[in-house]
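To: structure subgroup
Subject: Chain for Friday's discussion

All,

I'm putting the inputs and outputs inline so they're searchable in the archive.
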Amino acid sequence: MSQEIRNLEPKQLWNKFADLNAVPRPSKKEEKVIAFMKDFGKKLGFETIEDEVGNVIIKKPATSGMENRKTIVMQSHLDMVHQKNNDTNFDFDTQGIEMYVDGDWVRAKGTTLGADNGLGVATIMAILESTDIPHPAIEALFTIDEETGMTGAMGLKGGLLDGEILLNLDTEEDDEIDIGCAGGVDVTATRSYNEEETPEGSVGYTITVKGLNGGHSGMDIHKGLGNANKIMNRLLFDSFENFGLQIAEINGGSLRNAIPRESVAKIVISTVFDEAFVFDMQEIIRDIKAEFKTTEPNLTIDIQGSDLPKKVMDLGVQEGLIRAIYAAHNGVYRMSPDMADLVETSNNIARVIVKDGELSIGCLTRSSVESSKQDLANALRSAFELFGCEVTETGSYPGWTPNVTSPILDVLVGIYEKQNGSKPSVVACHAGLECGILGTNYPDMDMISFGPTIKGAHSPDERANIASAQKYWKFVLEILSNIPLK
């Protein structure tokens, strides 16, 4: 761990972030970070609770003179998205994140940084450990598995928390205050297929799509970024139509909440069409790269000769797969008619796997309107069921309905204006925050979300702005001093 991170201001925040990032914490494998957080709370002498799903709650009494203020819940999630570049040798299960300073930013070496939501966790840790920061009674809530299903928030039962105000520290623009968010559902299509012997007189190729930006499938879905699965499917569709391409394997994308950056397909072509196939593919690649030259300047598409696979997909299923992925919606489905520039509904075709007689297509569908979310999920289900897939919808979670009359919103807006001389943007976001879920068991809790500026979340380009962290820390301290009376 670079000492230069620990020397950044505010040191309380960056030191706790460095401590946290030394602990492996992939979603659904949070055992180490849960133990780390429980040990942290107990060493401070505070009541520390692990609930039945693995969330950790640490309760700290009010500082002197603040006992008459409302109890607050400070909340962030412990898990992080694990993404790395193909040429990065890194084991997320055993290694801590390797950070460095790059000008005005903190980055990681070839991996995600974990600032989402590690800077929020580190903030709460610093407040809990402090002896000179005024604050009301605090219930620190560290949830698990936010990134792959929000099962921690879903599993948190009513009655564990007494706080009247919740400060969620999971927003990624320091001039924004979030008062609402999208809900989501995982849509997964699966089926078996027959494999056939590779025809005689065939040649093998490996097609690789890489170099895409990727990014957060909620916050970045409106940016026109390339989706590796859709680009790959476009290549496969054309060559199947024109040259009878046959698919042996596809491995595209990774996590549902990350826009796919890479896809690899192993295919075969009849030797009769070999030369024409290569020529045609180069023309299509030029067209695609020209379309994405602004948003995806580093996109590369490689066609390389490879060993001839022994088996290929049944042609009937292959045709259904290619046409279904072409038909399945990806990207923005509907913009909000009520809030300017807010994506209401979207879908990310996140994962495509074809291998050994089994195929799977994984999507994450988001919307701030429940009926619109279901409408798009139905459209996807229809496209996939038409070629014989079994389609399941799992992990559904609700959105967070904006409350423009929130008392804590007034407090934060006033402090922001006083500190910065301008108004913050009061927004709803298309990402999935845990507030909507937590509100199901704590419906009377006044909730707000804010945070420091983080770019490129869910990708190896993730970076945290140093000046923004300083601005945000100052904001947090003033909020704690101005929590309303009971």
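Points worth raising on Friday:
The first strand starts at residue 47 and ends at 50.
The chain is about 30% helix and 30% strand.

D.
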